Amino acid sequence: MAKIDAFFKLMNDQGASDLHLIAGQPPMLRITGDIERVKYKVLDDDELRAMLYEITPEEKIKVFEETGDVDFGYEIPEIARYRANFFMQKNGIGAVFREIPSKILTVEQLGLPPVISKLASLPRGLVLVTGPTGSGKSTTLAAIIDQANRTRKDHIITIEDPIEFVHKSIGCIVNHREVGTHTKSFSAALRGALREDPDIILVGELRDLETISLAVEAASTGHLVFGTLHTTSAAKTVDRVIEVFPADQQEQIRSTLADGIRAVIAQVLFKRIDKKGRCAALEILIATPAVRNLIREAKTYQIPSMIQTGKKYGMQLLDDAIMQLFNKGWISAEEAYMKANDKSKFRPFLKTPPSDFTEV
User: Fold this and answer.
1) What digits encode the pLDDT tens for the residues 118-148?
2) Regarding the domain delimited by 5-101, which CATH topology (the fold level of the hierarchy) does it fall under?
3) Domain 107-345 is found in CATH 3.20.20.220
4) Distance between the two ends of the chain, CA-based, in angstroms?
């Protein structure tokens, strides 16, 4: 057993989502959104480096020592997988581990709206799950892929950096590919995937023009493609995809995206105040013909009002979802205010003035 595994066991026992190991500081855990120090000595650079290198593949150590950054996956059987990131900082080496549970929760267990599970049965198209880092995008996607795996007889390819949730083949064949280990880049893997008879492709992150272009193309040619972006609303997500392309290509991609897009889910994670744990608020855009028309005609600013009138299709605005959680007594007014798009809705519930003085 590696020396560092004791910290992973502590992390699991405490229900922490992240473990921070930084040279010059004691270990720290993120528990329900807050960083808490572990009662342990300050770690020096040599000791921490030896502890981390014990679990690191040789090729990843080489990349780290050349670049100062590296990502990889680490697994402790029967406990969990971990997404590891090493980085260099002022006092030496630093590392952050995100726990990825070995058990994949269903859409129902996560408390997500029923329309989310329907996305697993789509025959083709592009589905984007967006939100800030640590907002639960991977967990939501894992639930959708798990639903597809249980109810379809198809070929699923996942392309991630690193591999997070591991799906055992049930009804589908599931192949996991890790960028940097099994393939050179997201775009190279996506280009290769189109020749590997896939039905469903999961792209861990749509990072660059080439990857986004290939994902949109794959969705337009009969594949069901899931991907993630770091945006905060459905309308901004559509704009981000289009703005990645050069100005002279944007009209063409607007039309292609309008044909291929099926849904956008923008989500935010909240710390619960009624009990230990966290919950997600989701903005859901379903690409009805009217929505696709707005995208085609460059009227994405009208998407929020389209979501408001599309509740019968399962659509909902992020602020409405946040208000539901607040009315249930699950989240605080302060956090609801901080994470809402239209903050004026939540200002009357604040006991004290907002801490973000830049918000007017």
Assistant:
1) 999 999 999 999 998 888 999 999 999 999 9
2) Beta-Lactamase (3.30.450)
3) no
4) 54
